[in-house]
């Protein structure tokens, strides 16, 4: 059963594929400040659903970096690797209601047959009436339709997607048996009673798929705010795959100051030598989501880093 939400409950949900980088800090800080300004809770979830991509020590490194930066979370950390039963229950409900089917298509086959949409290749419904190659391992897809799904993002404004047109039926359990992000995030947000999701705009296109699953599973839809993402000189999102460097925990105040400036809240110069908690106290008092740049991405040229890559 979903937890009973308080007036505001937010969360930060990193994947343990490497250390936190500047782009991660922007998402963590934005969600933290929205929760704290609302006198709400800020939860931490480790999205450890993809063991082949995870680094053994990454989860611990993430917790330490958040602590160094004064970003203290409420309650125990939730690990998705311990949530298989909940995901299976959700799949069973979708199957009972006729929304699931098995799919034997590979990514390369879909790329060849499908039209490219904003979410990637649009699935061409190849296996809707049964797997095309039943001898293969099969993924599970959820059916979509041509009904528009809309929501108003607190920063990016009105959003609308017709899933059948932009992505088609999408995977909720992979052929290798791993649960898909779209399913897990919906189940866990409901279980934790999340009322408000503040995250990077790179996930804006995922939101309609998540709302679709929320509707099918009779789960509440949170409020959404998608922050601008930091991109490098090539226009690429700062990430482990683009070799973003890990945050330097030795200078958390400088890291926080740059992240606040990125989010439209440049702190007074006299606070920059302060301890992280003093800077965060200032940020809580002055936080105004309307001051965040209403953009999908913002190029940056100088970020607080160490010499250690945020490995993927």
TrEMBL record:
Q: Which cofactor does it need?
A: Zn(2+)
**Sequence motif 'KMSKS' region, location on chain:** 237-241
Q: Which residues bind ATP?
A: 240
Residues annotated for Zn(2+) binding in this entry = 103, 105, 123, 127
**Single GO cellular component annotation?**
cytosol
Question: Which GO BP terms apply?
Answer: glutamyl-tRNA aminoacylation; tRNA modification
Keyword Manganese included in the entry's annotation: no
The source's domain of life comes to: Bacteria
Q: Where is the Glutamyl/glutaminyl-tRNA synthetase class Ib catalytic domain?
A: 9-246
Q: Where does L-glutamate bind?
A: 11-15, 47, 181, 199
How cofactor binds (record note)? Binds 1 zinc ion per subunit.
Q: Where can the motif 'HIGH' region be found?
A: 14-24
Q: Which InterPro entries match?
A: Glu-Q_tRNA(Asp)_Synthase, Glu/Gln-tRNA-synth, Glu/Gln-tRNA-synth_Ib_cat-dom, GluQ/Sye, Rossmann-like_a/b/a_fold
EC code: 6.1.1.-
Q: Which UniProt keywords apply?
A: Aminoacyl-tRNA synthetase, ATP-binding, Ligase, Metal-binding, Nucleotide-binding, Protein biosynthesis, Zinc
Recorded GO molecular functions are: ATP binding; glutamate-tRNA ligase activity; zinc ion binding
Which family is this sequence assigned to? Belongs to the class-I aminoacyl-tRNA synthetase family. GluQ subfamily.
* Alphabetized NCBIfam families for the sequence: PRK05710.1-3, queuosine_YadB
Q: What biological function has been recorded for the protein in this entry?
A: Catalyzes the tRNA-independent activation of glutamate in presence of ATP and the subsequent transfer of glutamate onto a tRNA(Asp). Glutamate is transferred on the 2-amino-5-(4,5-dihydroxy-2-cyclopenten-1-yl) moiety of the queuosine in the wobble position of the QUC anticodon.
Q: Which PANTHER family match?
A: GLUTAMATE--TRNA LIGASE, GLUTAMYL-Q TRNA(ASP) SYNTHETASE
Query: What is this protein called in UniProt?
Result: Glutamyl-Q tRNA(Asp) synthetase
């Amino acid at each position: 059963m979903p937890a009973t939400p308080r007036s505001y409950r937010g969360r930060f949900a990193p994947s343990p594929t490497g250390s936190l980088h500047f782009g991660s800090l922007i998402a963590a800080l934005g969600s933290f400040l929205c929760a704290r300004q609302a006198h709400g809770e800020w939860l931490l979830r480790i999205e450890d659903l993809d063991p082949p991509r995870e680094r053994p020590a990454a989860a611990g490194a993430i917790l330490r970096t958040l602590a160094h930066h004064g970003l203290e979370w409420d309650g125990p950390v939730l690990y998705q690797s311990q949530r298989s039963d909940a995901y299976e229950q959700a799949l069973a409900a979708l199957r009972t209601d006729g929304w699931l089917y098995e799919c034997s298509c590979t990514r390369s086959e879909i790329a060849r047959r499908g039209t490219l949409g904003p979410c990637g290749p649009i699935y061409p419904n190849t296996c809707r009436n049964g797997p095309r190659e039943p001898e293969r391992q099969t993924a599970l897809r959820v059916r979509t339709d041509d009904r528009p799904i809309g929501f108003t993002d607190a920063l990016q404004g009105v959003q609308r997607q017709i899933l059948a047109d932009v992505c088609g039926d999408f995977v909720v359990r992979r052929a290798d048996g791993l649960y898909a992000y779209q399913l897990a995030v919906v189940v866990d947000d409901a279980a934790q009673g999340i009322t408000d999701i503040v995250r990077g705009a790179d996930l804006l296109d995922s939101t309609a798929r998540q709302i679709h699953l929320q509707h099918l599973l009779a789960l509440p839809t949170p409020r959404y705010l998608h922050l601008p993402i930091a991109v490098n000189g090539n226009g690429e999102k700062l990430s482990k795959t683009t070799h973003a460097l890990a945050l330097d925990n030795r200078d958390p105040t400088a890291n926080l100051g740059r992240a606040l400036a990125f989010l439209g809240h440049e702190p007074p110069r006299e606070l920059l030598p302060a301890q992280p908690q003093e800077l965060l106290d200032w940020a809580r008092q002055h936080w105004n989501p309307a001051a965040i740049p209403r953009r999908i991405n913002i190029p940056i040229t100088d970020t607080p880093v160490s010499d250690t890559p945020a490995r993927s």
